[in-house]
Amino acid sequence: SQKVPFQKLLDLVVPGLAFGYILVRIGNIFNHEVLGRFTEMGFRWPAQLVGSAIGVFLLWRFFHIDRKYKNLPPGYQFWTFNLWYQVFRGLVEESVRQNPLYGVHYINHYLGIGFMTLEQWFSPLIFAIAGVMYLRIMRQWRAEGPAPAFASEAPSAAPIADADPAVLTPPEPPSPDGLRTPDAPDEPPPD
Known about the structure:
mainly alpha
């Protein structure tokens, strides 16, 4: 049995989180929940579709990053997912949702946007936690260098004494004139 590092395990749940977010917002359409604000331009924001689009982007981003960069530090995908999720949900989706506003708030009735829902009050805190964790794993990764994801992928620690001597012996340099190798005889071959 192989143990998966916790940060790597967090990375593996990101597609499920993004896909779940998409499905929940689609379910909100059928249940008539998570409604958008009305605008003075004559329409209501499709907050459920905005949320689904955020989920689609986050899912696409995961697979794009996973395919393009093969040696990311464990936890990179999870913590950057949280960073982007807080940015998009806090600034975009919550701004168009018809949620109660708390404390100091702002509403633009013409555009149908509002700021400082409960989610928007907590987004900076969650963003800060995800940012600190992201910086921590990146600092650790740069200090230690890229590591294999699982212990079985690590190179074997065979002692140098067990290595083939021919592999450890450096090749001899060519002669200065480039015509002879050091193993070649000094005399030309007989006719």
